[in-house]
Structures are given as structure tokens and as C-alpha cells.
Amino acid sequence: MQAGAVFMTALMLAACGSSNDGEGQQVADEGQNSSANDQATQQSPASDPAESPVTAEGGTGMGTVQIGDEVWEFTISRCQSLAGALGGQGQSVDDPDNVDVSFEFQPEDWEDRDASEGWDDMASIRIDSEEPYLQWETGLGALRDYNLPAGLTADDTPVTGFDISDDGQTVTGEAKFVEINALFSGQIPEIMAGTFSFSCPPKG
Questions:
Q1: In whole angstroms, what is the distance from residue 13 CA to residue 36 CA?
Q2: Parallel, antiparallel, or unpaired for β 192-199 and 99-105?
Q3: What are phi and psi of 49, to 5 degrees?
Q4: Which CB contacts under 8 angstroms, 24+ apart, belong to 77-81?
Q5: Is the model's pLDDT at 191 over the cut of 70?
Q6: I want to staple 53 with a disulfide (CB 3.0 to 4.6 A). Which of 10, 119, 136, 156 is the partner?
Q7: Per-residue model confidence as pLDDT tens digits over 158-174
Q8: 3-state secondary structure 30-97
Q9: Percent helix, strand and coil across the chain, each rounded to 5?
Q10: Which strand (E) or helix (H) includes residue 26?
Q11: By three-state DSSP, how is residue 132 classified?
Q12: Confidence category of residue 41, pLDDT binned at 50, 70, 90
């Protein structure tokens, strides 16, 4: 199985597992977990350790995202890494404590790799806040599922640059973010420049 597909499946399973903490989502999550587990079983790679994602969890990683003048700090509770790719989830450190972050980055040299590995430009970050209700996103895919007003394209919100550490456990970079809910106002949302840094919990 392609390394890129293995990595994305691992992130999907991790996200489903994290969502099980909410009792209100228990039924939906059980269905998602069942589907995700079925997919993982059907697409399970061979027992080559090089094709097995490495999980780091425990709530001791840290993350920071700045968009304009707004700064969020996160505890990174779980990460997945594979073949130079890195993804994870976290929760806000300070009040309000209802802010979550998820991120994923392809290997930095993905364009130089064999196409059979299945990598593409998947770099993205999403911040969800319940109160106030906000959804900040960056990445070439952030806007592709929306009907966009004239003057705004899906290519306007890229992760403009990132660097993954040699040990594959820290990523830093810059991006252009958009607040998705602003799209529903019928106006062109402002694109905001931002920076980010995520360090994963220790492996093992």
C-alpha cells in the first residue's frame, strides 16, 4: 500500500479515537471507528516496519499558532509519523479550553520521491473553537469543498513553508489562514498570515 495512504489512514483512526472522549458523539464515533477499522484492515500494509506509522502520545507535546495578533498555545496529545510525514492533534492550554488543533504535513522531499509512494501536497492546519465558534484553516485543500465567491480561490490559503526536524517530531513554518465561517456571510473572508510550531510527545 502507498505510504501516503497508510499515513492518512493512521491520522483518520487517531482522529476518530480522540473524538470518542465526547459522550454526545459516542454513537457517531462508533460508526466512524468501525468504518475506519474496516478500511485499515482492508488496506493494511505488509509487516514492513518502514511502512508502519509511529504513534507518539501522552499529552506532553506543545504547539503554538499565531494568526495576525491572535496566539493559541496547545498541548499536543498525539502524533503520527511515517517516512518523513508528520501529523497530530492537540487541545488549548489556556482559557478558553474549547479550542482544538489538527495538523498534517507530507515529507519535505515528497516531490523528489517515486510517485508510487503516493505523496502529495497535504500540508494543512485546522483550528476549531466552540465559543466563539470559529474554524481557521490553511492548506491547499482548505477551500476546495466550498462554493467560493469571485476573487477567492482554493490556492489562496497555502502552507507557504515548513521545516520538519531531523528526528521527525517537530514542525515549524508559515501559512495563510482563512476563517471558514466567514464564507457563509456572502463576503470574501480576509486571508491572514500566520506562523506555527508543533512538537510531539516523546515516542514510545
A1: 6
A2: unpaired
A3: -55, -30
A4: 77/18, 77/201, 78/14, 78/18, 78/201, 79/55, 79/169, 79/200, 79/201, 80/7, 80/10, 80/11, 80/14, 80/53, 80/54, 80/55, 81/53, 81/54, 81/56, 81/168, 81/169, 81/200
A5: yes
A6: 10
A7: 999 999 999 999 999 99
A8: HHHHHHHHHHHHHCCCCCCHHHCCEEEEEEEEEEEEEECCEEEEEEEEEEEEECCEEEEEEEECCCCC
A9: 25, 40, 35
A10: helix 26-42
A11: coil
A12: very low
Q: Residue 154 carries which DSSP code?
A: G
Q: Which of 45, 157, 159 is nearest to 104 (CA)?
A: 159
| Model confidence pLDDT, tens digit, residues 127-152 | 999 888 899 999 998 888 888 888 88
| Entry pTM | 0.77
More confident: 105 or 4: 105
Residue-wise pLDDT tens digits, 44-84: 343 344 466 677 776 689 999 999 999 999 999 999 988 88
Look up cell 482544538; give the residue.
100
DSSP 17: H
Residue type present at position 112: D
Sign, CA torsion 47/11/82/198? negative
Name the phi and psi angles at 8, rounded to 5: -65, -35
